[in-house]
């Protein structure tokens, strides 16, 4: 009788224990919030040394997280940089070394590639993009965000929009808009968080600030805070001072709206459940308000001011707070790192790596061996704080900089270390040999002049075809000239 009773007691207890095991919740997947500024350099953010612009909300991200002092994008140019963020691959592998036409009907981000939104969506994440896209539209919108893994989209497809847009796109349809774009994107981000606070999400908020048109800056901010600011790159230039003041106001407004988004995370109790990243898509554009602080060059260039950007990660309880990280990391690393966080597998053929073990102290050393850049005949490689630079139109004039001692790239030591130059350039050549042919923007054709009968006289001739060479002025006053077609003006 006792044995029968014991068996009756054991069976329910075993079933109960089994039910407890079956009901154990799966590991909590963290949210990922990626905030992207546009054309904002080191000299434009307080925690990177800005003396003209106060950015308390971005600075707080760095204080409560990690500030990267060697955080890189893969191009000093919008569309290619974003392609690498979404795929974890050098943009040259996707045919996007240069900007594509803003709303290209025939080409965008390679449709055969999975995006980070595809990967995270497959792992159970809600995926959303608010703000700028600039990776193609297509004949049937096949390149647009909702066809590339994002489940929700609010923003614009092009390279820029007005700061007072009459319309934006929700999903795939245009909608009327009355808000300032910076405010609209922050409010839409907050609404996304409200809707999906109970499940893991990936949200990119790609602000258009502080891209052109600079005239869209709030005049009250300019008057109250920046009326006496001057452009440090152009002494005694009233025109550039005006651009700089507008730019400063746009960054200030951006920082305020980032504070709004962070407030929403706190309100929802998601602080420790969310990795928040702030970056810029490339460095500041010298001559259009941007300032890259001690770094040489800027947007469109190959020097550090174009691709070493403000780069901050915040994840309380997981990443250390108030720490600087000096080893080179890249936006190529977003795809594999986010996939690892989600318990998903990234695509096999990627160039980035999961950097979380390095950031958390589980792995030591430098995550990357070499990092490469290539844009419009400009070539660079970084290895162990050494950087080699070449220009295809300047053969025989190599450049070598020891970034650990010469962050401003003012002391070319190529002549002193020819063997190191040769080693680095050969490594770049091997990488370049793995790439498909670069996309070269076509030059616009002159307009066809209509045949006019002798009795009529044209009041005005056809507009001349512009084939101008656009100068790129660095912080140090050197001018690098690059030929650009009409499509390249879309940035």
Number of strands: 18
Helix count?
A: 11
Shape: globular
Gap between N and C termini: 85 Å
Give a structural overview.
The chain is an alpha/beta fold and 491 residues long. It has two domains: 31-359, Alkaline Phosphatase, subunit A (3-Layer(aba) Sandwich); 371-432, Arylsulfatase, C-terminal domain. The chain is 27% helix and 17% strand. The chain is built from eleven helices and 18 strands. It has helices at residues 2-23, 56-63, 78-87, 116-122, 181-195, 219-225, 238-267, 304-307, 334-342, 356-359, 418-432, and strands at 31-37, 66-68, 71-72, 126-132, 152-156, 167-170, 173-176, 201-206, 274-280, 311-314, 323-325, 329-330, 371-375, 378-383, 386-391, 399-402, 469-473, 479-483. The strands form four sheets. A ten-stranded mixed sheet has the order 7-6-5-4-8-1-9-10-2-11, with helices on both faces. Strands 13-14-15-16 form a four-stranded antiparallel sheet, with helices on one face. It has a two-stranded parallel sheet with strand order 3-12. Helix 5 (181-195) runs parallel beside helix 7 (238-267) and helix 6 crosses helix 7. The longest helix is centred in the middle third of the chain and has 30 residues, at 238-267. The termini are far apart. The model is unreliable at 1-24 and 441-491 (pLDDT under 50).
In short:
The protein has 491 residues and is an alpha/beta fold. The protein is built from eleven helices and 18 strands.
